[in-house]
Amino acid sequence: MDKGLPAKREITFETELFGSKTFLIYVEPVFSKAGETIGINYMGMDITDQVRKRERMIKIREEIAVQKAKETELNRTIHITEETMRAKQMLATMSHEIRSPLSGVVSMAEILATTKLDREQRQLLNVMLSSGDLVLQLINDILDLSKVESGVMKLEATKFRPREVVKHVLQTAAASLQKILTLEGNVADDVPIEVIGDVLRIRQILTNLISNAIKFTHEGKVGVKLYVVPEPPFAKEGSQHGSDGSTANQTTTNVPKEETCTSTSQTSSDQRGFHGKKHEGSCQNRSQSEPGTPVMNGKIDVTEEQAELPETTVWIRCDVYDTGIGIPENALPTLFKKYMQVSADHARKYGGTGLGLAICKQLVELMGGRLTVSSRVHCGSTFTFILPYKVSLSCDHSDDSDDPDDLSDMDDHGDSDDDATNGFFQFQPRTLGSLFSSNGSSRTQKLLAHNIGHVNSHKINGFSENYCSFPTSNGQAKEMDLVEDACSVAEALEISSEPECSFSHSPDHDSESAICRGRRHHNDVNGENKVSSIDVSTYSETSREVDVKVKISEPQLPAERQGRSDSGSQSTLNTSQEVSNSISKPKILLVEDNKINVLVTQSMMKQLGHTIDVVNNGVQAVRAVQCRSYDLVLMDVCMPVMDGLQATRLIRSFEETGNWDAAAKAGIERPSPSSDSLQPDCTPPKHIPIIAMTANALSESAEECFANGMDSFVSKPVTFQKLKECLEQYLP
Amino acid sequence: MDFVNLLQRKFIDYSSSLHREGIVDDQFTQLRKLEDENSPHFVMEVASLFFEDCEKLINNMAIALEQKQGVDFKQIDECIHQLKGSSSSIGAMRVKNACIAFRSFSDGQNREGCLRCLQQLSHEYSLLKNKLQTLFRVSVASRCLYVCLVIFCRGNEHAEPFPDVLVFQLEKEIVAAGGSIPRVH
Q: CA quadruple B24, B27, B28, B29: dihedral positive or negative?
């Protein structure tokens, strides 16, 4: 009215009789000819229906939009799924393709391992083998997993005996057990003698769980418990087919997602909290997976059989328990996910592909069961799976004898206790001992080499070191080689056994140490030229230039190295070697066990113009002095077998008394006088200057050195200056 | 030649930094002096021997410390002693110091302390190894380069920022490998 313009508005009234009604009101002012507003025209229209229609249209459009969105989403999902399937198919194919030649490589490597190889080659080969094995394992796991997921996996249904399976799996595990663990198996009495199921898959699951348990348990025991349980609720829910599963369901593609794996209905007290979290999720998925549940009938035979024989389903629960490191609670939810391991550290320390549990879970669920875990850190873990098995009632006891003991006797693996229940087995560590020693070194080598690939923990090495030390102390060089190389803790063995063995092995070790090189080739003195170049080239494996350099320089080195080896082999005092040095040069003896110190000192002496003899302990030093007269002795104080102080005492006693009785008393026999002996007994022995090389340890005080007969001492590290001063002072 | 200069300078700088950081000490310098035409790779050889030795000993100690049945501290002590001796001989100062610290824990039979020290030792060893390997690479790279330049620019007045000894050695190496150095007079 104020504006003088027509307007229209919608106004909604609430009426009692007709409900909500909407009117469109149109009002327009009426003007006189003069332009004054005289009045208004107003019209009202009932547009209730139109409004309703309009609203409905809007709603419909919205719905359409939502539908369209859903459609695109679905299309995308289908597309992704298709691509995934294709990719998995390709992966499976590729993996398969990869596997064959890779098996070839590994097989060739294994054959190569049986040929004669030097230590370096053997070490390289071991790396090859373990890497190859790991990759093969990975590929197999991937193939398994993709097979399960793609629904290609067909389940078998064969009769088998649970007790045998358990025993067999445990035995296999025990055979390759590297640690001191007790393996036990317990099958309850109410478990039938024979059941029907997919024995291969069940064995696979058991093996995987047991090997996991062993891997993560360093002491205590690992065990399997098998017993019958009443039909669990998860089977009842949503299963229209009942437990008979008479319809031959093919394996389904809607395998439940990895996040939900739990049988929440298990009320056993040792189940841990995370099940609760997953409860909601698993409810949904259960209905998805249920159609796949009673899938025992992959084979046509079984359905036929089934039609003829009455069968019941028995639910058997299997606990795989251990006293291992346990699983932290926060790792439990992701435990069954693919490629997940408890932590990156775990993966690094324990190895493994991270696929095992995922596969197990898939398999168990495919067979209609559930796989769960409960664990406490540092105490242990228990993996539980429940599966339905068919039992054919009619043929139950026809083949079996009534006497349970006979059954276990037939199997004859000698280890099961003869309990009333034939379902109890135990494998103690001492069984392992006999396995190791009786089967000889080749078995050991294979086992050890085999296991290095799978389990990568220090414990293994430590354990094998304990076992390997037996052959070592027998002094069998060959066996030591094999075992060492297979263990690839070669140096550890040598170091650990050296203190005991070096005395008896001194012939070998003398020549080695005289060569002053790190690599222990037990036999070859001639090999030292190669040894020296191998040394440098293995160091320089990354820089090719150096390789070239080394090769270039090698030919010119032999002359000089030969010189060193001559001086070195002179200290192989069991054989009297010709003295090639001229008499005018002063004879210097270096007594030092540390190879690096020897190298450095020798090099310095060379620069000062002297060649020196080298021995590695007090006993050798005394022998050296017995055989030749030296003008100077540089004596390290701390050495194995006999230290510098005692050696000096013995030498001084000879100088004072003219005889080597004291040395003989200490166990050093006087070698028969050779043409090299420049000291006839009548002349009084010369006083040899003996310089102590001390590392400033508490046990090496100056007073002590002097008290034992040393003339002076130099403190390590040995430098030019110190050596020069020494020489100037004590050499004529 | 400027390039060679650059490399040489790099080498000197890098090796001074090693000294400054305490990774190597004077003993290492002594070792360098032992290189001549008769043992042109001496330092590398000693170093690689040391690396091998060190790894072995560290490994042994790790194994010994993991023994549940009881740690053999005597064995660990021996390992430390060896390592201390070697490291001080080649001038690996930080490794040597780590050994000294380690010793007190092993004397006290303190397993936890030993484990920590072992870790520290491992760390120092890795550091040393990395640095030395880099040093060697730089030195070798510059030598290589120099060989090429020597061959191509023989007779050039403006050559030779390198010591003659090195030239001599390189020439010997090339000849020994069957090559020849064209002499331009």
A: positive
| CATH code for the domain in which residue B89 is found | 1.20.120.160
**Residue range A188-227, pLDDT digits in tens:** 888 888 888 888 888 888 888 998 898 888 888 899 999 9
Residue A527's pLDDT is: 36
Give residues 31 to 50 of B whose Cβ lies within 8 Å of A.
31, 33-34, 36, 38-42, 44-50
E strand or H helix at A123: helix A119-150
Would you state the pLDDT for residue B151?
58
Q: Looking at beta carbons, which residues of chain B come within 8 Å of A607? A: 33-34, 36
In a domain, B66, yes or no: yes
Chain B closest-CA separation from residue A218 CA (Å): 10
Residue A241 to residue A245: CA distance in whole angstroms: 5
In a domain, B60, yes or no: yes
pLDDT bracket for residue A23 (50, 70, 90): confident
**Residue A630 confidence (pLDDT) above 70:** yes
Closest to A599 (Cβ–Cβ): which among B46, B144, B177?
B46
In terms of residue numbers, what domain contains B26?
A: 1-149
CB A182 within 8 Å of CB A428: yes
Is ipTM strictly over 0.95?
no
Sheet with strand A19-31: strands edge to edge:
A7-15, A19-31, A37-46
Q: What is the CATH number of the domain that holds A721?
A: 3.40.50.2300
Mean pLDDT for chain A overall: 67
- Whether A716 is covered by a domain: the verdict is yes
Nearest alpha carbon to residue B112 among A95, A597, B120: B120
Domain limits at A338?
156-232+310-391
* Residue at B93 is within a domain: yes
Assess if residue B164 is contained within a domain.
no
Tally of domains within chain A? 2
